[in-house]
Amino acid sequence: MAKKKTMKEMSFLDHLEELRWVLIRSTIAILIGGCVAYYYSDFIFDSIIFGPKDGNFVTYRFFCELAQKYDLDQSFCMTELPFELQNRTMEGQFAMLIWTSITVGFILAFPFILWELWKFISPALYEKEKRNARYFIFVSSLLFFLGVMFGYFVITPLSINFLANLTISKFVVNSIDIQSYIGLVKSTSLSTGLVFELPIVIYFLSRLGIVTPNFLRTYRKYSYVIILIIAAIVTPPDVISQMIVTIPLVILYELSIFISKFVTKKEELKNEA
Question: Which of 147, 174, 194 is the last residue before a domain boundary?
């Protein structure tokens, strides 16, 4: 990214003031989304947050049918998970209601936050790069929402099923604190959504010359090992379940290499010209 020569330069304090308003507008958008989530809190908690606790959740049914068809591990064929949720603090449920609403508000406001960030950096871009704003917002939002859905429908139920059925002794009963359960659902979904932004991050890092395709290829095998370890932990001991988790993450990494190669080659041609 290069500055336009005709662009009027802003002082450091001007940049801070502009950034302050970006943060203020983004915060307002999150609060508005949080109010919407608060209004529909019954549906969000009963059908979405506590959905993976139900043995008839869509992911469990899918893996159960898959296991029965191919004679695999049938740990997902169940009617209910062997644990109950409990609230052990006076303000626990109220805190969970507020913070869950804010989290959902952030997810809903994510495209607007991207738009605000794009407007903040746009003065340092060429006109051609500015015209790509709609593509940046669309692709980044799409990757984020796909990541959130993948985290919620795949990683979260697999993790809950694994942890709920893990026992160290028959004398231990799982009575899970509500903050722990909701924290797992939120952190897994959000973190996966952010992980799916990897191609966008690689694009900008490649533009800045911080990341190169050779760097990504060099550490490819280490990345694959980490991905396989994660898949082995959160899935039952069969190859198909592990591949369902592994393949999207591998595709994401390979896509990042392709993007870095494309950007690096484009920058080299520009410098030669």
Answer: 194
Helix and strand counts by DSSP (H, E) for the chain: 12, 2
- Alpha carbon distance 66, 76 (integer Å): 10
Distance between first and last Cα of the chain: 17
| Position 26 in a domain | yes
- For CA atoms 162, 196, 67, 53, the dihedral sign is positive
**pLDDT for 1-33, tens place per residue?**
444 443 445 666 777 888 888 999 999 999 999
Question: Within this chain, do residues 263 and 190 fall inside the same structural domain, yes or no?
Answer: no
> Which has more pLDDT, 240 or 248?
248
The string of DSSP codes covering 94-128 is HHHHHHHHHHHHHHHHHHHHHHHHHHHHGGGS-HH
Query: What residue numbers bound the domain in which 186 lies?
Result: 12-194
| pLDDT band, very low/low/confident/very high, at 143 (cuts 50, 70, 90) | very high
21, HSE (Cβ side, Cα atoms, 13 Å): 7
Q: Is the model's pLDDT at 170 over the cut of 50?
A: yes
Q: Are 59 and 157 in contact (CB under 8 A)?
A: yes
> Mean pLDDT in the chain?
83
**151 with 19, same domain?**
yes
Pair (133, 45) in one structural domain: yes
Contact yes or no for 1/207 (Cβ under 8 A): yes
